[in-house]
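Figure 2 data, in text form.
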Amino acid sequence: MSEQPDDAELAEFRKRAAAWIAANRPADPGFKLPQTFLEVESKRQFEFLRQWQARLYAAGLLGFDVPREYGGQGVSPAKKQIVSELCSEHQTPFMVNLIALQWAGPTILAYGTEEQKKRDIPRILSADDIWCQGFSEPEAGSDLASLATRAQRTQDGYLVTGHKVWTTLAHFAQHMILLARTDPDAHKYQGLSYFLFPMGSQGVTIQPLTKMTGEGGFNQVIFDDAPMPADCILGSEGQGWQIAMSTLMLERGAAEQSARHRTASLFAQLNRIVELARATPRVGRRAIDDPVIADRIAQLTIEAHAIAYGAVRGEVPSLNQERPMALPLMNKIVSSEWNQRLTDLACDILGPAAALWVDDPNAPDGGMWPRAFMNSFGMTIGGGTSQILRNIIGERVLGLPKSK
């Protein structure tokens, strides 16, 4: 049973956590840092971020919603929310092992054996083991159930053959949550299995992909009879689609309080946009004095409050009984598209200066805004494109007929 801290305890915890984060927030390392976990390309970027997560965990500020027997704090997620808010306020680095913390870890907790949970969860929290996700394939993106990667049973385990793409952090990962076909003769949804694949296996080739920003982070992974022990399976053979849908719900924001965690940074970003508009000259006045710019900022502010209140509503069971997945799925769409419009507005505020890239000494804010705008497209694609998610909401939440 999780502990339920009272208001006084939470207030004291916030005070202590704020003091620790303020005192231990990493200084500028002197090199370009990625803006999200999707752009981690160099070893020094990775190690900088990994060490920050390890320090947070060692300080007792990570793993609040994980039972103690698996390396967590075993307390109310309310403290997790407090740390998330404080990290946003202090603009700390992000958690590099996000795929494991938010998707792989909770999936293992839900479906894993005791051995798998005790082995993997503590090393996820400490960032000793990094995880990537092996779902999408070149011919199976939107239609994930059509994937062709095969895990063929052998006497000692499995041999994996196939091709995964858009595999974030594969070049640093020790493990992959892998969806592969174990029964090619079964219905496409029933012949899939879910694995905790060891990335150090022979027969694995990782090829980096370069995005339009010139940054890496994405990869494609090719398996050529890569061996995998039998105990790497999560759940049972044929259960892969069910488990994968649980992971995708986590990726799309359905985890408890994850929507509130995402909204914690919205207002910090808005404040930066307001500061940018106040500091940017435009035809003899400030950009914020332009009524069109001011109106766009106001609209984004209204929507940020709506996203935040929607996240709070999502935590009240009685308000979500009829359609429990509606708010989490909608939050993923609106928050990712909100971020894209926010960064687009920043580029409009900058005007011609938005054409200056990160290596230009005259680029405002180090060129972060045009870079953020281009990187924002990854968030409206990852976890299912906005178009796919709208179909899912229509068909699975609202019960509308499938489009033809």
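Caption note: The radius of gyration is 22 Å.
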